[in-house]
Amino acid sequence: MTLFYLKLIVTPLLMWAISLASRRWGGLLGGLLSGLPVTSALVMTFLCLEQGTAFALGAVPGALGGLAAVQATYTFYLFATRRLGIATAVLLAILFYGLAAYAFTHWGSLYLSIGVALLLIGVLIRASGREPRPDTLARPRHRYWEIPLRMVSPTALLMLTTRLASWLGPATSGMLAPIPVIAWPLVVFAHMQHGRAGMAAMVRGNAIGAVGVIAFYLVMAGLLDAWGVAIAISLAMVCAVGLTVGLAGVLRRG
């Protein structure tokens, strides 16, 4: 019961904080924060506590396959919206994610998923950098239901994934862990409110954060058996945050 309340409280609070940060400091920071392995860390923590560490380790290849599918989906959306409307592009991107995630987790491999994810991260950083810069002086209209909707969606996915984990199995549970339920609403809302410039900034932040997500899974998988759940996931998060901040700084100077 304690784990249930932790899921119910922690996830929406994180979504609320990231949404406010995005409003206050812009899409790039919002993308960086939502691109960090927040949902992934929560899913993996609860999988360890409820299903055991062996189950969580078995979910890592699926999670990295899901991450590669996420980057493929952002790439699809970034280029599709040059010709299609937002609603059409969102529906096609969700369908594309399902197909890509299934392909990576059932027919791919751990190294293939990492390689494709890194390649697509490079494509996204380069392509988003060529988009116009967002107008920081513009004051978009914020609807009252936006943040509550963003808070509910990742909480619902976390509840569903961990609840059905024993039935779904480690591969599918891992595939669901990196679904961008925090980032995806932010990207779409940024597109509607700030146009392509705001959307591109959010996607760029997510792509940079995805490098940290890869580090998170690799460090967690390497330390989990030897160090235990709390230390392994904490160190993995520290590595993810450090790598993301470092890469963001290098790209900013460049």
UniProtKB/TrEMBL annotation:
Transmembrane segments: 25-47, 53-77, 84-104, 171-189, 201-220, 226-251
Keyword Membrane (UniProt): yes
Taxonomic superkingdom: Bacteria
Keywords: Membrane, Transmembrane, Transmembrane helix
Signal sequence coordinates: none
Keyword Ribosomal protein in annotation: no
Protein name: Permeases of the major facilitator superfamily
Species name: Pseudomonas oryzicola
